[in-house]
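User: Can you model how nicotinamide-adenine-dinucleotide sits in this protein?
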Amino acid sequence: MKIGTPKEIAEGEARVAMTPASALDLQKLGFECCIEAGAGQAAGFTDAAYSEAGVEVVKTAAALWKTADIIAKVRQPNETELKRLTKAKTLISFFNPGGNEDGLELAKSKGATVIAMEMVPRISRAQKMDALSSMANIAGYRAVIEAGNNFDRFFTGQITAAGKVPPAKVLVVGAGVAGLAAIGTSTSLGAVTYAFDVRPEVAEQVESMGAEFVYLDFEEEQQDGAATGGYAAVSSPEFREAQLAKFRELAPEVDIVITTALIPNREAPKLWLADMVAAMKRGSVIVDLAAERGGNVEGTVRDEKIITDNGVTIVGYTDFPSRMASQSSSLYATNIRHMMTDLTPEKDGQVVHDMEDDVIRGSTVTHAGEITFPPPPPKVQ
Ligand code: NAD
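Assistant: Here's the modeled complex, given as structure tokens:
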């Protein structure tokens, strides 16, 4: 069978779902590979590099979608792309199945199989295919780099002949995958780093990375995320008040705030309110990684960087992985290659779509003329 990758068509998207390196691995699984001309250009992979790796370079998107049996891409497909699917084709990409009913209906009407990368179950066996995590890891790292780029002081403290420099104080709100990556980057740059999460079980991870976990003066324990499958639930009003009071206390102290707090299937909770922004020092920086879901910060403007009247920069970009397109393409392409390994048990270039397999079942959102989203809960943890 042939696996092909088109050029991403979403504006500003620089990632690509196949790299020359991943193509070599896909060929070892027995697949032929093809790519649309120029698809890897923005991520630093030339057509010549693909050709050298044995990949056929196809001139147009239409020709690519026609010739490939399996199409691997990054972003949710648009209508034109979905109309190119047929019963014999499999699409693997982010798909936003919970908010893309029209896309599901169209893929179903074509009889195509669609594997949605955000639906890969978060179980140990599937970590190698977990593109949400590989992209969140990049976003967390890049958020700190972006903050540093907008912050006109050192992260690390220094004692120099020209004077003593205090370390920057960084607060990371939400210690999931992106938050932990931000914490690791911040501590490695030498900043004094604080982190808060509603899930108390992350305190140990936060502390093992050299940051300080922020505890609340709250009589009940911080929520136990284990009850919600490792994800956070909406906080009680009392808990939220205690959290906001703690943030109010920290706002004049911290130089950089990175917010990453999300609750599945909801708008991002507003946690850093206008009065906290107003209480921050001139020159402070906030990076709101939740901007795509409405933002954790009052005043975030999606996809923009603004400077408030009191001189605080608020960054609301939603394309951090694309800003590191070479790295994120390599990791995403590896996630896809692992998915293909599981789909090709005989390594003979023939896909076996085993709907009894938890990972494949969980990720498949249309198959054999049916919408198969949402999936049943996984059998194996
Ligand atoms: P996410 O992106 O859904 O949320 C980010 C963080 O925000 C979470 O840690 C959440 O607890 C936190 N949060 C929510 N509301 C908050 C609030 N009011 N204040 C502060 N923080 C708040 O999370 P994620 O990065 O996708 O990770 C979710 C869970 O999945 C974690 O337990 C993570 O370890 C786990 N996970 C498991 C696997 C695996 O086993 N394969 C892979 C990735 C993630």
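A couple of observations from the model: The pocket of nicotinamide-adenine-dinucleotide is lined by residues 122-124, 127, 130, 133, 136, 173-179, 196-199, 225, 230-232, 235, 260-264, 269, 271 (CB under 6 Å). The chain is about 35% helix and 15% strand.
User: Helpful, thanks.
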